[in-house]
Amino acid sequence: MYWTKFPADWWCNEFGDEIHRYEILDDEDRCQDEYHIYRAGDRLPWSGKTHTLAEAQRQLEHSHRALMA
Fold it and tell me: pLDDT per position in the chain (69 positions), as tens?
């Protein structure tokens, strides 16, 4: 799976899946990153979220492998 990074912390793969990075304040006002996942074709605005880019990419890769099996 190939990922292309666009400005403003947004990634897209060849299937049209997207990952967007957001900075979120936690309960103690510390900034944390969240990666929101959108699977191409899903009707919901986001399919999931993680705290690392690598985990977001793994989730999308796993879902594509499951569809191909």
Answer: 789 999 889 999 999 999 999 998 888 888 999 999 999 888 888 889 999 999 999 999 988 777 776
Domain edges within the chain = 3-68
The separation between the first and the last C-alpha atoms of the chain, rounded to the nearest angstrom, is 16
Cα 43-64-22 angle, rounded to 5 deg: 60
What is each CA distance from 39 to 26, 27, 28, 45, 61, in whole angstroms? 26, 29, 31, 9, 10
pTM to 2 decimal places: 0.82
Rounded CA gap, 17 and 32, in Å?
23
